[in-house]
Amino acid sequence: MRPGPLIIAFGLLDAGRASSANQHKWTYPDWRADKIFKRQDGTGACPLPQAMLVTAPRKTPFVPLSQPELDSIIEWLGSSSLGLNLSDPSSSTLAMSDNYINHIEILKPNKTDVTNYLSGNASSVPRYARVVINEGAAKVPGVVQYYVGPLPISNSTTMRPLDYFYNGPNGPKVLFSGGLYDAPRRRAVEAIVTKTMSSIADVTLDLTGLAYYGTDDNRTNAVYFVQNPYSTDGTTGVTWLPWRRLAQNPWDQPSDLYVSLDITGTDPSLYHLRMIVYNLIVYNSTDAFRAAWAAGEITKTPKPTTNDSFLNKNRTGTIRDLEGRFAPTMLTLDGNRYRVDVVNNYVTYMGWSFYMRFDKDTGVQFYDVRFKGESVLYELSLQDALVQYAGNNPFQTGTAYSDRFYGIGAQAVQPIPGYDCPYHATYLNATFNDGGSLRTIQKSLCLFETDIGTPLTRHDVYGNWKQSTKGSKLVVRMIATLGNYDYLWDYGFVVDGSITVDARASGYVQADYYRAADEGRWGPRIGETISGTMHTHVMNFKCDFDLVDTKNTFTKTDLVVENITQPWYPERGVFESMRYNISDLASEAEGRQLPVPANGQSMYTVVNKDHLNAWGQPRGYRILPGLSNVYLPSQNSPFFLKSGQHAKQAFSVSRQHDTEPASTAALSGNVPEAPLVEFWRFFADDEPLQQEDLVVWANLGMHHYVRAEDLPNTLPAEAHASLMLAPQNWAFRGGENTRDLANAVMYQWNITNAEGVVVPETNGVNAPGCLGLGPDDELLGVFEEQ
After folding, report:
1. Are residues 257 and 278 in contact, defined by beta-carbon separation less than 8 angstroms?
2. What digits encode the pLDDT tens for the residues 426-466?
3. What is the distance, to the nearest Å, from the Cα of residue 765 to the centroid of all Cα atoms in its chain?
4. Domain check: are 398 and 458 in the same one?
């Protein structure tokens, strides 16, 4: 039987406090044996943390369309007066050449409208719907976005093209071939794939062990992916299909077979085979492929293995020593220290407050972020997660994913309690508009407070005093599974006023077929017939700073080394020394492409020069690059030519405009030459940046150097990127922001008990009695044992 946990009777810690007249002694009695500090067996369990409620100062302006609102909009769009000639999008006979509604959601409100409302200068925020319509029957087919409103539907409601923030060459329209990959198009692609592949099934079975007769045929043992992007500007559609073994984890069971299709236009009868590639040899038709096979002219390469046990996560091997014990975990022992208004998605925590919004395209977003009542950020939000691959075959070379296209928020998953999120976390549902429906993903966000693992501050002055302040932060976590990868995003609000953003990746790598002749130039061999493929993840974040107000400046502080002489060092002559060179970004031309500071010798800060601290310094926030602030290494890849402009530099700084709400758009993913948003056009007018409303666009990511340890799953401890926003001269009275925290301890040599033991000041905050403490956890005696 295990002994009961040991605890301290914390109520005695302040007993016998001595006056300052007591002298500091260097020898003390054995306090551990003193009956005053006798340990007691813990008999009570810590109470389950209860929800701590708060009421938002104003109802959230970020409310998705209700189902009745969606229904009323759909009915209104179908009226004959509009002449849209819409087909039912749920029909099994829906064709690409039809006009139909693809998606309806609330149009994210303009910042000016939201800030007017939150400040009390407006009673409400105007509501409009964003409507995406496949216009297959148009003279020039495409996918067009409109905004409908004001809502609710009335005689004043209108429908207009959503062209005020889509600055691409086609405005709010994506030409058809670069548009949706929805049910009608999937059926059309499946039809030509089935027709093509079933005609050469005997050939592919012999060469690869794979055959495809269609998704519903039991003889099928293969699966294909559709390469993105599958267009350049929407006028043509071309894709490559890699062939993989049909299994639970096909991403890591590739073959050496690739098929290319022309999928241009709305007429599926025109879809056709372009070429077949096997062992890097191109065949322009199924007849040519079969003829070469029949003539014995094809050199076979190894087939993908049928043993996929290397991809399973079932536990194997001898259990490690003591691994049978439950791993350490993070617990809330004294009740939650944050409050949530679940109706308005509003949170307060240790001086922090913010609203949350959930977006189908990108997931959780944060608004009106304040610290100790003062504005820090209007918006903090993920914009997109890009992945660019390279390799010695047509699929990997041309693969460039924009995960916003698939709906990062729509792919959010419910975390596993105690594993993905700590026990006792608070879970929030994600509700958003998906197609023509209101959809909720249960418990898709978790909130929890965590020890950051280090003290916020600490210091020892030997023999005189010592102090330490507990470090903690509130974390909002979202996990989304996008095909083969699982992404975990953490947004942390630290009690010292800092904000952290962490991105991690796990799941399955998109492996490549192993070829010895490649010599590892695109990735090492990691399996019998597979190799890892080099690729880069880039995640773009919008940081709309409103430090105190909307008049902010981006300051660059360079640490420069120069040769100097000084009269007090005559013997040194000319020698190297350092100083600061402080400058402000004058205009957007300077803010478009900012690098990660080399050797950390530059500091990026957003400041408000109209609001100084007590020492006359502009109050601000520093932008601290963390782990792996990477961007796309290729600046001119045809697969991210213009659609990836937001991901081609570490940082960018622009003026905030309601007409520039996002750095990219979901439907830009398949039209790299004609995206809906051309990010660099934000900077074309070269507006001034000093004491203006600024947005910092920051990139995090990973150059994924794939390794054998990526199987079965990528390890997120290594696949990790981060960013910190930290106060810089922010406190009005000067100094750091933690002196008002009670979770701190202070020892002073002349404050002792009757036995001469220095008694710490704990500000009345002590560990709860249910916490089992060992001999080395005592607060008494620490000062004497240095």
Report:
1. yes
2. 999 999 999 999 999 999 999 999 999 999 999 999 889 99
3. 35
4. yes
